[in-house]
Amino acid sequence: MLKFIAETKLNSWDVSPKELLIVFNKLDLSKSANAPRFLKSDKQFSKEVLINLELLKGGIDSLSPSTNQKIVDLLNLAFSSILVDVSKLKRSPCLGYSKSKRVDSHAPFVLMNQKVQQIIEDLKTIQNEYYDFISTKSEVVLANSMEYEHSNKFDLVITSPPYMNGLDYVMNYKIEMGWLNFANNQRELKKVKDEMVVCDNVSKGLIRDFHPIYTNDWIEDIKRNIQKNILRRGKYRRQDMPYIVHKYFDDMYRVFKMVVPKIKKNGRFILVVGIV
Ligand SMILES: C[S@@+](CC[C@H](N)C(=O)[O-])C[C@H]1O[C@@H](n2cnc3c(N)ncnc32)[C@H](O)[C@@H]1O
Questions:
Q1: Parallel, antiparallel, or unpaired for β 95-97 and 89-91?
Q2: Which ligand 1 atom sits nearest the alpha carbon of residue 196?
Q3: Closest Cα to residue 57, out of 73, 34, 40?
Q4: Measured between alpha carbons, how far is 98 from 46 in angstroms, rounded to an integer?
Q5: CB 196 less than 6 A from any atom of ligand 1
Q6: Domain segments of the chain as ranges
Q7: Residues 6+ apart with CB under 8 A from 181
Q8: 120 alpha carbon – ligand 1 mean position (Å)
């Protein structure tokens, strides 16, 4: 899904704002799409909001095959961006139910309209101020960075590695993944999660089968301390936490092993390790 989002944002700079608006205004809102069946959509959205979301998605899905694909992609992108806002959930940064949130039944239409207007303004800015860059091609690769063999060498590598604690990216983005058909059941969601750098909500089996290729004294020391703290507390959500932590460093080591040799001499590797 992230590949779709990045690709759509990077490669739709030449879309005519006028054409986007025409397609959006002519969406046929008489055919409903189905909310993802494997998610608890009835719990996540109020009944009225859900009906309107299904109408909006139905309108996008029933666009004629001759419609400019970049416009279809931008509309799906806009649609995905409003889902959590119109739901009963909030991201802070983890996805969870909000007791105080109230959403008007027409919010899907109002927010979708706002988002499309915002995209139109962005396209106008790009086309007025960055005209020379419009045809610059960006390549987005969908791959596991623990395994991906880069064919080029790079001047600059930037990454913000995943959080290990309390942020399960798949759980956090399952609503968008479901509605955009990037996952059709829980098994597919689990498969995505298992291929990612580990988080503390991963399946127990994955940790049981973990065979490290990397360790050092300080990792072993951290593991011993975690083990001691778990014993002191008597009970902890994840008894296998020392191994989850080990796997996190092991996974990141695998990423570095693939990336570092591909940095050019005097190149830079920028890694975000914390936000103050
Ligand atoms: C802290 S976020 C950074 C997100 C990104 N910089 C952004 O601004 O959207 C970490 C990202 O790493 C991704 N990730 C986790 N494991 C990965 C893997 N094995 N290969 C590639 N990406 C992975 C997660 O899906 C998540 O989107």
A1: antiparallel
A2: 16
A3: 34
A4: 13
A5: yes
A6: 2-133, 154-162+197-271
A7: none
A8: 28
Burial class (CB in 10 A: 0-12, 13-18, 19+), 107: buried
Helices assigned H by DSSP within 83-216:
107-129, 169-172, 174-179, 186-195, 204-208
Q: How far is the CA of 161 from the centre of ligand 1 (A)?
A: 6
Quote the pLDDT of residue 275. Answer: 64
Q: 162 CA to middle of ligand 1, Å?
A: 5
Q: Whose CA is nearest to atom 13 of ligand 1?
A: 162
- Asked if residue 237 lies in contact with residue 124, where contact means CB atoms within 8 angstroms, the answer is no
At 12-58, the pLDDT tens digits run: 999 999 999 999 999 999 999 999 999 999 999 999 999 999 999 99
> Crossing angle, helix 2-11 and helix 69-82, to 10 degrees?
130
Percent of the chain exceeding pLDDT 90 equals 92
Instruction: Give, using CA atoms, the residue closest to atom 5 of ligand 1.
Output: 160
Report the separation in Å between the CA atom of 240 and the middle of ligand 1, taken as the mean of its atom positions.
23
pLDDT digits (tens, 9 = 90+) for 178-195: 999 999 999 999 999 999
Measured from the CA of 197, which atom of ligand 1 is nearest?
Answer: 16
Q: Is the pTM of this model over 0.85?
A: yes
* Nearest ligand 1 atom, CA 145: 20
Cα 198 to averaged position of ligand 1 atoms, centre (Å): 11
Residue that is written with structure tokens 């025409």 in the block: 22
CA–CA gap between residue 247 and residue 200 (Å, rounded): 10
- Per residue in 7-46, is it b (16+ CB within 10 Å) or e — as a string? bbbebbbebebeebeebbeebeeeebbebbeebebeebbb
Q: Which helix (H) or strand (E) holds 49?
A: helix 47-61
